[in-house]
Design brief:
Largest sheet of chain B: 11 strands, mixed
Number of strands of chain A: 3
Radius of gyration of chain B: 37 Å
Number of helices of chain A: 4
Helix content of chain B: 40-55%
Number of domains of chain A: 1
Radius of gyration of chain A: 15 Å
Shape of chain B: globular
CATH architecture of chain A: Orthogonal Bundle
Oligomer: heterodimer
Largest interface: A-B, 21 and 29 residues
Number of domains of chain B: 4
CATH topology of chain A: Arc Repressor Mutant, subunit A
Distance between the termini of chain A: 35 Å
Number of strands of chain B: 22
Helix content of chain A: 55-70%
Number of helices of chain B: 28
Structural class of chain A: alpha+beta
Chain lengths: ~110, ~850
């Protein structure tokens, strides 16, 4: 198995929301896309992906609907909601702030 | 929002589960497809994808865990599991629930009554700030501090000066008034009454300050909502309507809202301003005296505490004001006490007696609950033992003990809550009718409210802990090996059963002895000689329209009546009395002996009677002479034996003098008679009849006599209302509360007995089952039936004896507590005790019979093959 980079806690939700902001995706698609975009650095296992999706559902930031996949199988597609977009903005800002802070510490300390 | 989504998820959780499963399958298929593309064979890909998906179950659990707090789901599981197991054993569940429901129902019913009479204040705005004010006074008879009301003058002083109250009002209930629409219960109040209470009128208004004064321009009245509906048909034009009270026209100015039931334990039909008291009895000097004399006693006072003032502060201020008021006249006074406004608290310190009775009754019903809990505990224990294997297997598969105990407790809780539900239903049905039957009509509602529901739920929790915890702990003790052996039950299990058995035996003995004593007490009271003729004597009261009559005219009426009766031989003997025998009225006066000063004053019961009184009631003369007609107005009295014995122990009382303001000569002594109460006869003093209060006529109760008196009364004045009662009815009424108490106690006793029988039978059946092999061996070796039975009974003998001894000791203690409600019956009445022991022995035999017979019929071969 390849080595996975560990995600900062909470960033998985942010990344999922960001991916969904471009359009509806199913769970497998989200995992695949995350892997490709990050150049195989971020590989997320099912055991964290699906609970994360449930958490987003519970908070009302995404919606789930059954539809047909690319190869015509029944798959569950997730779409971002208005509340989810708002949350994405908030979390993105927060993330930038934290990263900026970490950067600063790394550079000046 | 989140909660709603959680709930939606919970309601559709099956569907959600299949969704998730399907999603997983899709995911796995996609991984498989990818792997195949990268060059694996289909078979390899399938294995690899499955491995990659790994802990799919854990992932599903975690996904679900996002939605549901894990414990909430497991509680649900426990409940469902418990419900399923009860459905499999409906008999067990039904018995357990019924036993508990009975016990909880009784407790909840009693608490419903207690809540209504002792805890629930007036239904007015912010009732917690309302207080009842009582004056402290020294009881002349019993020699301790008592509480009483205030004179109007005292009240006015307090109301004017008190800063600790935002309002203080005075009220006085008046039994019955003629209104042309039946008898009406009225209450005289000060004009601020409705305002201080914060009552929002349904119609019209409350009273104005000027309406409170005597001689106010217009007589006004406020109707109770129910009176408006029932007697005036809810007339929408009720305001301004006239109604005649004692022939005086009153104008109705307001109607109270339906949820205001008044401030008296008895229903109030109509409120009148204080001043109209004089208007309604223009010829009587009493109202004027009452409204003005500072010593005229008395009326109830209540009020609302000013913001930020505590009861203690208000009590101090009002007490000082009362002293200040009396200092103006060079007199001393005791302080005041404040109490809440629940019906029971409105009687001041006398409430103590009621609390004592409630405490006794609660002790009784709590004992029943304890018995029921012990019983259900025993049933649960038997069940837990039967499930030993299941529990053992679950323990060894890694179930936590806490988890298992919790699950067993959930089962108990389900039983307890179901029983509580039934118990609350009982509390809705039982207390109201029963209370009204025993005590009479009341204004306050006797229905369970939220406080009662909380009480019932609390009982469920407590009883669940009581009967469920020990069996649950016992059942989960030890491990798999113990459980699978199924034999050699640890001693502890049996000893828990034994102590539960001992509790049941002891509890039922206490209850049965209490019940037995109550029943014997009522029997005793029936055979008690009241000391006067009760059977066949009628008491006739006359009711005069107050505005048309004044004292001379009343006296004239009686004199004509007397002449008429004397001319009628069949009506003789007849007598007059101010106090109706056993009619629940008492009057006292204080007196002292010559040569003593006033500090030696003692209180004594008094009655005004005509010469014919003692003859009619067949109370024999012990010494001296009877009253004669010429005694009226003379300073002579008669006394009863109790008075003569207490104050002139070794001398002749006749001819002695007592001083009540002026010297009075004792001319005769009569035998003691229970004309006031059925308890001990207190010293009493009889005065020659005066007509201050219209006296009652006592004569032999025959149709001819009643007809003759009716005719005479009608011919003298048709407006006079006459009421005939039998003295035996008074006696019955006096006994009816006790009879109902005995009935209830008897039912409790029977309930306790049946619970005990079920318990004993259960324990022995269990003992036989536990020792089947042992008994089989004994039978095979030739043990005789008696020896076998000895083995079975012996297994619980210690528990039985212990229970018996503890029960008897408890019963003796309990007997002393209820001793004063037994009409003088010896609390250690041998008949009651013997009866209880015999009943219990018979019940015990019956309860052991079946299991014992089973043990005798055991086939040794089969017994040894048991397992």
């Amino acid at each position: 198995m390849e080595k996975n980079s560990e995600l900062l806690p909470g960033t998985l939700d942010l990344l999922i929301l960001r991916l969904l902001a471009r359009g509806a995706m199913h769970g497998y698609g989200i995992a695949l896309r995350l892997k490709t975009i990050s150049g195989d650095v971020l590989q997320v296992g099912e055991s964290s992906l699906y609970p994360a999706l449930q958490r987003l559902l519970l908070n009302g930031w995404v919606k789930a609907e059954w539809g047909a996949s690319e190869n015509n199988r029944r798959a569950r597609f997730y779409t971002i909601t208005a509340a989810g977009r708002k949350q994405l903005g908030v979390e993105r800002e927060e993330f930038q702030r934290v990263i900026g802070a970490i950067q600063k510490v790394l550079e000046t300390a | 929002m989140k909660l709603i989504r959680r709930l939606q998820y919970f309601l559709r959780r099956r569907r959600q589960d299949t969704d998730l499963a399907e999603e997983m399958r899709f995911h796995q298929a996609m991984v498989e497809q990818d792997l195949e593309r990268s060059g694996m064979t289909a078979r390899e890909a399938s294995v690899a994808s499955r491995r990659a998906m790994g802990a799919i179950t854990r992932m599903r659990e975690e996904s679900r865990g996002v939605w549901i707090w894990p414990w909430a789901e497991s509680v649900w599981q426990d409940l469902a599991y418990a419900a399923r197991s009860f459905r499999r054993q409906p008999g067990f569940a039904a018995i357990a629930i019924l036993a508990l429901a009975f016990a909880i129902g009784l407790n909840t019913s009693l608490f419903t009554v207690f809540n209504a009479v002792a805890l629930r204040p007036w239904s007015v705005r912010d009732p917690g700030r309302m207080v009842h004010v009582f004056s402290l006074l020294r009881d002349v008879v019993k020699q301790f501090d008592e509480t009483g009301g205030f004179s109007v003058a005292e009240y006015r002083y307090l109301a004017e000066h008190a800063r600790s109250m935002t309002g203080l009002f005075l009220m006085r209930s008046e039994g019955g008034m003629h209104t042309g629409v039946g008898r009406t219960r009225a209450m005289y109040v000060t004009s601020n009454y409705f305002r201080v209470l914060g009552v929002e009128m349904e119609r019209g208004r409350g009273f104005l300050a000027e309406e409170e004064r005597t001689g106010s321009a217009e007589a006004v009245a406020v109707l109770n909502y129910a009176t408006w509906q029932n007697r005036f048909g809810g007339d929408p034009a009720i305001l301004g309507r006239r109604m005649r009270i004692e022939d005086v026209p009153f104008t109705i100015v307001g109607v109270t809202p339906p949820d205001f039931v008044g401030t008296s334990p008895e229903p109030t039909d109509i409120w009148l301003p204080l001043g109209s008291m004089a208007l309604l009895a223009p010829n009587d000097s009493w109202p004027v005296k009452f409204l003005n004399d500072r010593k005229a006693c008395c009326a109830d006072v209540a009020g609302r505490l000013a913001p930020g003032i505590t009861r203690q502060q208000a009590r101090t201020e009002l007490g000082l004001l009362r002293e200040e008021f009396y200092r103006q006249f060079g007199e001393k006074s005791l302080g005041v006490v404040l109490a809440g406004t629940a019906p029971l608290q409105s009687v001041g310190r006398k409430a103590g007696n009621f609390y004592a009775v409630f405490a006794l009754m609660f002790a009784g019903v709590m004992l029943v609950l304890l018995l029921a809990c012990a019983n259900v505990g025993n049933l649960l224990l038997a069940r837990a033992v039967a499930r030993r294997r299941e529990i053992g297997v679950r323990l060894s598969l890694g179930a936590g003990r806490v988890r298992l105990v919790r699950q067993l407790l959930t089962e108990s809780l389900l039983l307890a809550v179901a029983a509580s539900g039934l118990g609350v239903l009982v509390a809705f049905a039982l207390p109201g009718p029963l209370f009204i039957r025993t005590v009479g009509e009341v204004s306050f509602p006797l229905r369970p409210d939220s406080v009662v529901l909380a009480f019932a739920l609390g009982l469920a929790m407590v009883s669940c802990g009581a009967f469920g915890l020990a069996p649950a702990l016992h059942a989960t003790r030890g491990g798999l090996s113990d459980a699978l052996k199924q034999r050699g039950a640890p001693r502890g299990r049996l000893s828990l059963r034994s102590s539960l058995l001992a509790v049941q035996v002891a509890g039922s003995i206490i209850l049965l002895v209490g019940a037995g004593l109550m029943v014997r007490g009522v029997q005793h009271a029936r055979t008690l000689d009241p000391g006067f003729a009760v059977q066949g004597v009628a008491s006739v009261s006359f009711d005069f329209p107050a505005t048309a009559y004044q004292t001379p005219r009343v006296t004239g009426f009686y004199q004509s009546l007397m002449q008429g009766l004397e001319a009628l031989p069949a009506a003789n003997p007849f007598g007059f009395t101010e106090i109706e025998p056993l009619g629940n009225t008492r009057s006292y006066t204080s007196f002292h002996l010559p040569g003593q000063d006033r500090s030696h004053e003692d209180g004594i019961l008094t009655n005004h009677v005509s010469p014919g009184y003692f003859q009619t009631l067949r109370i024999p003369l012990v010494a001296g002479r009877n009253f004669e007609p010429a005694d009226a107005g003379r300073n002579v009295v008669m006394v009863n034996q109790a008075m003569a014995d207490r104050y002139f122990p070794h001398e002749r009382a006749v001819g002695k003098t007592v001083i009540v303001d002026q010297p009075l000569e004792i001319v005769g002594v009569v035998r003691n008679a229970h004309t006031w109460t059925l308890d001990d006869v207190d010293p009493a003093m009889y005065w020659p009849l005066s007509f201050g209060l219209p006296p009652r006529l006592l004569l032999s109760h025959t149709a001819a006599n009643v007809a003759a008196v009716t005719a005479m009364s009608k011919s003298l004045d048709a407006r006079v209302e006459m009421r005939v009662t039998r003295l035996s009815d008074n006696l019955d009424q006096w006994l009816s509360a006790t009879r109902i108490a005995a009935l209830i106690a008897g039912m409790l006793g029977i309930l306790a007995l049946s619970l005990a029988v079920i318990g004993i039978a259960g324990v022995f059946a269990f003992a036989v089952e536990q020792r089947t092999q042992e008994i089989g061996i004994r039978v095979a070796l030739g043990a005789r039936p008696a020896q076998v039975i000895a083995v079975v009974v012996g297994s619980a003998a210690r528990a039985l004896v212990a229970g018996l001894l503890v029960g008897l000791a408890g019963a003796v203690l309990a007997s002393r507590l209820i001793g004063k409600y037994l009409f003088g019956l010896n609390p250690l009445d041998p008949l009651a005790y013997a009866g209880v022991l015999l009943t219990l022995a018979a019940a015990g035999l019956a309860a052991t019979y079946l299991p014992a017979r089973r043990s005798l019929k055991l086939d040794p071969i089969r017994a040894l093959h048991y397992e």
